[in-house]
Design goal:
The chain is of the alpha+beta class. The chain is built from 10 helices and 8 strands. It starts with a helix and ends in a 9-residue tail after the last helix. Residues 23-84 form the HTH iclR-type domain.
Length: 273
């Protein structure tokens, strides 16, 4: 029994050493893959060799193995780039990314820079619902409760969300609002007005209202997209005429659009240019 126990203990020690020691050839292969990933463009073998400070023949052996497993590929001009399986890793990682969590730093920056109330909303089955709310430091605060459903016609939040929904989904919802809250001065007052407003909002990249929902209350909404460029959530800045003056709205709009580009650049580097 003692001998068996000793042998088992020795076997476990050997296994632990193997685990701790790792597989050096695998580590080298992953280093080659890291180099291809970091370069962000196809590379010639000589270039890859120089980056890795490794003999070209040795690099080539690892690249061949990566190609066999579809983690790398050789292009027609002889350069090497990432293969489909490597791209799949990236896509899977992006799918697990919580865009709202990723946006938190930027949401805090907007709140502190403009000192306005902020709410964040997402689209659910039949409307735009507030999922996060931050108060300003002003004595008078506009508080939007988490769980509130925003009007599609009168709020900047609702208008922006409406512009990114399929027309067969959004049209019945808008018609319901028109029926329940029709006013002579209301804009958009009908489907044609909405399509006109939609084209403007999509072109400028934001939605804004100045007293449309509540007299003396102004708001700006910007979209945040996921890695497939689908709308994930909307960030809205809300303030009184003192906090967010109509005459200075363009300055605030330019600022929040700059922040939106920073968020977008996390997935599309060219968007930051």
């Amino acid at each position: 029994m003692t001998t068996n126990a000793a042998m088992q203990g020795k076997a476990m020690s050997v296994e632990e050493e193997k685990i701790q020691g790792g597989v050096q050839s695998l580590e080298v292969g992953l280093t080659v893959l890291d180099a291809l990933t970091a370069h962000n463009a196809p590379m010639m073998l000589k270039e890859l060799s120089e980056v890795l400070s490794m003999h070209p023949a040795k690099v080539h052996r690892y690249v061949v193995s990566l190609i066999r497993k579809d983690y790398a590929q050789q292009l027609t001009d002889g350069r090497y780039s990432l293969g489909e399986r490597a791209h799949a890793f990236g896509v899977n990682a992006l799918k697990r990314t919580d865009m709202l969590e990723l946006s938190q730093r930027y949401i805090q920056d907007i709140q502190q820079s403009l000192n306005c109330s902020i709410h964040v909303s997402k689209w659910f089955a039949d409307g735009a619902v507030v999922v996060q709310s931050l108060e300003s430091n002003h004595v008078f605060n506009i508080i939007t409760r988490v769980g509130s459903r925003m009007p599609l016609l009168k709020s900047a939040t609702g208008r922006l969300h409406a512009c990114y929904q399929p027309e067969h989904i959004i049209k019945p919802l808008l018609e319901k609002e028109w029926e329940s809250s029709a006013k002579p001065e209301q804009y958009p007052a009908n489907w044609e007005d909405f399509l006109e407003l939609k084209a403007k909002i999509l072109s400028q990249g934001y939605a804004s209202v100045t007293g449309d929902m509540m007299a003396g209350i102004n708001a700006i909404s910007i979209p945040v997209f996921n890695f497939t460029q689908q709308l994930d959530h909307v960030i809205t800045c809300i303030g009184t005429e003192d906090q967010l003056p109509e005459g200075q709205m363009q300055q605030a709009i330019d600022y929040v659009l700059g922040v939106q580009r920073q968020i977008d650049a996390l997935f599309r580097p060219a968007a930051a240019i």
